[in-house]
Amino acid sequence: ERIQNEIDQLKRQVQILLAERTKLIQEVEIHTHQSELAYELELAQESNDKLQSEMKTMRELAARAEERIARAVEEKEAARRSHEDAVQQMESLRAQISQSNEGKEQAVQQWERAAAEKEALEAKLSDRINCELEEAKERAI
């Protein structure tokens, strides 16, 4: 019976050891799993840090692009205003040229009238001179 007791006690110890072994195996598996999760978390954190850095860079690039777009819009508006000013100046010059041409046309018409009047006066004067010469010849005869 003593041997049987020792066998039973050894069986209980074997069962306890098997239970402890199973528990230790489970703890090792949990630890291994936690270690894998920690590694994956570290990788995810590194990836997150990299993405945060890239996002910061992208925001900076977007801000610079917005500044360039704003400058381009301002430059386009300035060019449009400049173009409108140039068009107004050209229209003003056209009006001045038109007035100048009208003035020239009026001056040419006045000159032509004056030339015609001069010719008419010269013709009258010539006729009168001829007439007076004829009268003077007749009186002299």
What can you tell me about this protein's structure?
There is one protein chain. The protein is mainly alpha-helical and 141 residues long. It is 99% helix and 0% strand. The protein contains 1 helix and no strands. The chain has one helix spanning 2-140. The model has no long low-confidence stretch (mean pLDDT 93).
Shape: rod-shaped
Structural class: mainly alpha
Q: Regions with pLDDT < 50 over 5+ consecutive residues?
A: none
What's the gyration radius in Å?
A: 59 Å
Order of helices and strands: H
Number of strands: 0
Helix % is over 70%
| End-to-end Cα distance | 202 Å
Task: Report the sheet with the most strands, covering strand number, pairing sense and barrel closure.
Answer: none
> What is the arithmetic mean of pLDDT?
93
> In DSSP terms, counting alpha (H) and pi (I) runs of 4 or more, how many helices?
1
Beta-strand residue percentage: under 5%
Outline the fold blueprint.
Elements lengths: L1 H139 L1
Write a brief caption for the model.
The chain is mostly helical.
Keywords:
141 residues, 99% helix, mainly alpha, 1 helix
